[in-house]
């Protein structure tokens, strides 16, 4: 599977805005919506990516492998779910911490094209000694 | 909260951009890798060892750059290792990111190391050190 890198950057930018709004408004519903978006993106149906495709008709200069960003969406989903647990149980540091971590990663991706979620793969893999 | 996060991410992003892919000299105990470690032959003059993983965006571009350099400079081999299948090496060399590129001299000593996608000129420069030019 290949992906348009511009659509990925666009999706990261929208994710950044949504997560910033979650922190500002404290809306668990908005975070839940973003969690759904993360989940869909793992399966290759990114709603933000579709918005981009609807607006931009030109084709990208180069395609890139879709597996790394999909994995990163999974990492994003994990943080969003932890954040949701925090909001629902009103453990504020958990809610803010997890959402801020997801915002941090989304912004790095949008502004610098750096995929923090992708980098997590090897680090997680290193921490799991048994599974080889 | 939003502002603090974005400022922190910007700082990290700037540092990453500056450091990413820049070959650094390896200090302290210099590691030596054998063809047995690499499961491939060492280059006659130098070897470029690339650690890659399945979820790595810049690995493909890095592979292309290293292949180009290998073609340009005689006696240099390019060995790509899937980090996931060689976690022993990944741990012993303390590799945290993919791609990580190690520049080995003719005897397999790790001379330079770059994490992130390196620039072609930097790889050529690091090779100059490895082959002793």
TrEMBL record, chain A:
InterPro entries reported for this sequence: DUF4395, UCP030042
Pfam families for the chain: DUF4395
Record bears the keyword Transmembrane: yes
Transmembrane residue ranges: 7-25, 31-51, 71-89, 101-124
Keywords, sorted A to Z: Membrane, Transmembrane, Transmembrane helix
UniProt domain DUF4395: residue ranges: 4-126
Domain of life: Bacteria
Protein name according to UniProt: DUF4395 domain-containing protein
């Amino acid at each position: 599977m290949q992906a348009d890198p511009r659509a990925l950057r666009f999706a990261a930018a929208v994710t950044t805005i949504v997560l910033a709004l979650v922190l500002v408004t404290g809306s668990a519903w908005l975070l839940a919506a973003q969690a759904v978006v993360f989940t869909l993106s793992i399966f290759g149906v990114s709603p933000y990516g579709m918005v981009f495709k609807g607006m931009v008709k030109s084709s990208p200069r180069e395609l890139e492998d879709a597996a790394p960003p999909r994995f990163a969406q999974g990492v994003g989903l994990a943080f969003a779910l932890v954040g949701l647990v925090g909001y629902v149980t009103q453990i504020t540091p958990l809610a803010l911490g997890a959402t801020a971590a997801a915002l941090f990663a989304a912004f790095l991706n949008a502004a610098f094209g750096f995929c923090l979620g992708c980098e997590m793969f090897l680090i997680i893999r290193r921490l799991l000694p048994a599974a080889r | 909260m939003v502002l603090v996060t974005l400022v922190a991410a910007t700082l990290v992003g700037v540092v990453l951009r500056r450091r990413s892919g820049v070959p650094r000299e390896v200090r302290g105990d210099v590691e030596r890798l054998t063809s047995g470690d690499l499961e491939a032959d060492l280059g006659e003059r130098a070897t470029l060892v690339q650690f890659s993983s399945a979820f790595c965006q810049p690995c493909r571009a890095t592979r292309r750059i290293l292949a180009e350099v290998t073609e340009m400079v005689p006696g240099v081999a390019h060995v790509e290792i899937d980090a996931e299948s060689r976690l022993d090496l990944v741990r012993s060399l303390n590799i945290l990111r993919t791609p990580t590129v190690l520049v080995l001299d003719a005897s397999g000593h790790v001379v330079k190391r770059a994490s992130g996608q390196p620039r072609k000129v930097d790889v050529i420069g690091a090779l100059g050190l490895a082959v002793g030019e």
